[in-house]
Amino acid sequence: MSDEALKSRTAKNWSLILGLAIPVLMILFIAVSIYVPQLFDNTPPPSVNFLYTSDYTHPHSLQVRKNRLEWVKGHTYNEQQDKAYASKPVIYVHDVKTNTSKSIDFEEAQNLLLDAKAIAPDGYKIEQSRRNGWFPFDYHYSRDRYLVNAHAAHKLNLEYTNQSYYGFNFLGWVIE
């Protein structure tokens, strides 16, 4: 095929070529806009540990006041009375570097200096997963939680004392 015949054929099919090139260019543009910023992102990983409970029967019985954890007035835990319907809330400290949680007792938690703000001093906050299905019949709930900032999200491996989806109660960031 000669050059002139190829030019003539291309001129006749320019709309077809353009129609096929646009989706390819869009895919390349989206891929570049997603992956190139990650190459230059030097966002530091999360560095501030946090305290939480996973017992939904005592969601508001513990509170941070004056940077210390304390029982809310009127919600003191009485082992004899509360044994019948609920267990004592389990307090966890989550280490963000190792992404692990360990339970601590109330006295240990009281000795920690806490910040109850939603956003940690390092700029991260805890968010719940928002996964939904594509169809009305494909809905599922996820209790996955993530440490999120403007550029990154890190899935948290949290401990739960029960199988309730509503069991996570953030208490505060551990200030060191």
Polypeptide structure, described:
The chain folds into 2 domains: 3-40; 50-175, no CATH class. The model has no long low-confidence stretch (mean pLDDT 82). The protein is an alpha+beta fold. The protein has helices at 3-12, 14-40, 79-82, 106-110, and strands at 50-53, 62-65, 68-71, 91-95, 100-104, 113-115, 125-128, 145-148, 153-155, 169-175. The longest helix is centred in the N-terminal third of the chain and has 27 residues, at 14-40. Helices cover 26% and strands 24% of the residues. A 5-stranded antiparallel beta sheet has the order 5-4-1-10-6. A 3-stranded antiparallel beta sheet has the order 7-8-9, with no helix packed on it. It is elongated and about 90 Å long. It has 4 helices and 10 strands.
How many DSSP-defined strands? Answer: 10
User: What level of helicity do the residues show?
Assistant: 25-40%
The backbone outline, from C-alpha atoms, is elongated
First and last CA, distance: 75 Å
Major β-sheet, in short? 5 strands, antiparallel
Strand order of the largest sheet: 5-4-1-10-6
Report the portion of residues in β strands. 15-25%
Oligomerization: single chain
- The tally of domains stands at 2
Order of helices and strands: HHEEEHEEHEEEEE
Radius of gyration: 26 Å
| Average pLDDT score | 82
Model regions low in confidence, pLDDT < 50 over at least 5 residues: none
List the defining traits of the structure above.
single chain, 176 residues, alpha+beta, 5-stranded antiparallel beta sheet, 3-stranded antiparallel beta sheet, 4 helices, 10 strands, elongated
